[in-house]
Amino acid sequence: MDSKLLPTIRRVLFCALPMSLFSAPMSLLPVAAAAQETFDIGVSTILSPPGSVVQGIQARQALELMADWTNEQGGVLGRKIKLVIADDQGTTEGGRTVAERLITRDKVSVITGQVSSNVVLAALEVAKKYDVPLVNVNGWASGIRTSGARQVFSPGPYTTRVITATVDTLVGLGVKSVYATFDNTDAGYSLQKELTEQMGVRAAAVDYKSVVLDRQAKDYLPVVLEIQSRQPDIVVSELIAPAGYILMNQLYDQGVAPTKETAFFEMGGMTDNPDFWQNIRGAGKGTLAFGHYHPKFDLPGVGVAFRDRFAERYKAQPGRISFQAADAFLVIMDAAKRANSTDSVPLIDAMEATDMVGTRGRITFDKTPGPTYHQWVDVPYAIYQITAIDQKLEDTTLLKQANGPLDVKAIVAP
Questions:
Q1: More exposed terminus of the chain, fewer Cβ within 10 Å: N or C?
Q2: % helix / strand / coil in the chain, to the nearest 5?
Q3: In whole angstroms, what is the distance from residue 366 CA to residue 355 CA?
């Protein structure tokens, strides 16, 4: 390991404050981690369809890297990290079954890795039952937060942040008509609901229509033709891969978007997927995109170290899911050290007091009941434009960072 990386990662992983331990019914607790030689962390993620396998692989890669990196330094509290990885397939039943098995059979004291909202919503009920912490990597749905589950912590994207950024962009662009598409997932329905509400309040004069599409469909031509007949100023899409790839290609093939007349805004966060250009033809050029990471971000030291180590290990640049998974892991390590325990209940108590520097910035969790409960409220994001086919993420045009202004003049017509 590069010795230059050690001080940075140690500051993040080994910052400690004393925490009191709280009791819970023994019948609902997994076997105490203190009796284990390893700190067993459950990883529930998508490794096979129907969910987005590419996102699941990104999460697994980042978590494996972080575990190995930590183990090179001796682990945490004298224990090596052991990841117990399971495939939830991105389904509700998979999320529930995997969480139950990880806790009751594999005796993990914390779960992470989930990259879809329906999985998190199913797993959180299991986490509540056994009082085991769940660190959510990529579940956006507001229902995760409004559930009030004290076991769930989210250092990744959330609906309100995504929709506020999207409406800010639409208002900044000055569009007069919008057609929005969502997939039939918990995240999709949540995003559709909030976008409709915010558009009604903040852009009431805009001609707005939205539709929910089946994420397992192979053909979206009927809706593409409807969009063509309406000729909106912009098409907004939340569909994740592979459904999002199909829609983008069909919009392009029919000459609908992106064009000089109709822009295309991808807010599902799939444009930094490693297989994006393998599945997208000319449709990518001209696309406006929302993302939770951009290579032009000014990253903290641990973020730079993670990015470089990821690139060295996997011969590819990390995407937003990679950074989100790394931050989820760091939240767990930070809590374990401050709690001086790898048991579930002390971990939950410590996570509530999280105040640490992750790969993308300072992470804290809101305690206000509602859509930001146990959420990293200021999670960073970017708006950028793809201006060439096969363009690398670092070469895209960064139009906006978080609360900064939208650089409309930098947008290039397709």
A1: N
A2: 45, 15, 40
A3: 11
